[in-house]
Design a protein that fits this description.
The protein is an alpha+beta fold. Helix content is 39%, strand content 23%. The longest helix has 45 residues.
């Protein structure tokens, strides 16, 4: 590289050679100055003025947009979760209760949500794990929505049999409501036990009557069991009516049905008696709903017309006349 300088004596420009060392030094000095200025600019820009670098600002703006989207998604999920909870309460406490269906346990509604961490790849992406928690929440709500949908399908199927349900509910007395033939000797609730003298819950109603009075099924169903308990119910028939309802007829003298037999309201199932642990001849009648004993008086009316009851039983006898196997079994145990 050549450099021209003015000679003051000759007033002419003369060529002056520049050494390589000088060239390298000046180059390094220029680079160092540029770096120093850049560092000073970054320090003033970030530390003094508190501003982000352009690329950092772009990344932060992008993150803010995604955070807003996730926040909006969680807001909507809050609303969906509230709606789903309202559907669950209506399903368990109204629809399923009306049709005698058991509530769906929480363990079933949330089944399949735990287990393998399929979102492990999201761990560590952010300190709050908001994205991972949102993904898990979507999975949980998806599963619960599916279970709720299947529950409504089940309720819809049962509701189509509403007429069948009406005939299955134990809605009539188990005996002919003729006041001259029976006496309501003990109602549902706490009473003094006639054998021990202690206060004890009486789980049904006692209808005192002579031995041999006919006893009838109070609703359509299937004979769940025919039993004999010498120290308890004596000759006893248990009927499963479906829809959460069951009935028990105890201390019978004779039983005219067998296990697994289908019966309808008004079918004779036996005769009243004094079998088992009984202080006198009577029928002990119980109603179960969803496994719990309930007051039978809430389901039948003893003031029902005697003629209306006899018409019902006569109709069933006529219908059963076409069945050669009906009442072909008699069980007598004392």
């Amino acid at each position: 590289m050549r450099k021209y300088i003015l000679n003051p004596e000759t007033l002419l420009y003369e060529i002056k050679e520049v050494s390589l060392r000088s060239k390298v030094f000046k180059g390094l000095l220029l680079v160092a100055g540029s770096v120093a200025l850049s560092v000073l600019y970054l320090w003033v820009f970030t530390s003094v003025l508190g501003m982000d670098l352009p690329k950092t600002a772009l990344l932060k703006a992008e993150k803010a947009r995604w955070d807003a989207k996730v926040a909006l998604m969680n807001t909507r999920l809050d609303r969906y979760e509230d709606n789903l909870e309202a559907l669950r309460l209506r399903d368990d406490e109204i629809y399923r209760s009306i049709f005698g269906m058991n509530e769906i346990p929480l363990s079933v509604r949330t089944a399949g949500i735990g287990g393998v961490d399929k979102y492990a790849f999201l761990n560590g992406l952010e300190s709050t794990n908001t994205l991972k928690n949102t993904a898990l929440r979507i999975d949980r709500l998806t599963r619960m929505t599916y279970v709720q949908s299947k529950s409504f399908d089940e309720v819809a199927s049962v509701s189509k049999r509403a007429g069948e349900m009406a005939s299955c509910i134990p809605a009539v007395p188990p005996i002919i409501p003729d006041p001259s033939k029976y006496n309501l000797s003990s109602q549902f609730g706490y009473r003094t036990d006639p054998f021990t003298g202690e206060s004890k819950l009486h789980t049904g109603v006692d209808l005192a009557m002579k031995i041999g009075n006919p006893v009838f099924a109070t609703g359509d169903g299937v004979v769940e069991s025919v039993e004999y308990d010498f120290f308890g119910y004596g000759n006893c028939v248990n009927i499963d009516h479906g829809f959460g309802y069951k009935t028990r007829y105890a201390h019978l003298d004779r039983i005219t049905v067998t296990d697994g037999m289908k019966v309808k309201r008004g079918d004779k199932i036996g005769d009243s008696g004094k079998s088992g642990r009984a202080s006198g001849p009577h029928l002990h009648y119980e109603v179960f709903y969803k496994g719990e004993r309930v007051n039978p008086m809430n389901y039948f009316d003893l003031s029902m017309s005697k003629q209306e009851y006899l018409d019902m039983t006569a109709k069933r006898e006529k219908e059963n006349g076409t069945s050669p196997t009906r009442r072909s079994f008699t069980v007598t145990r004392r």
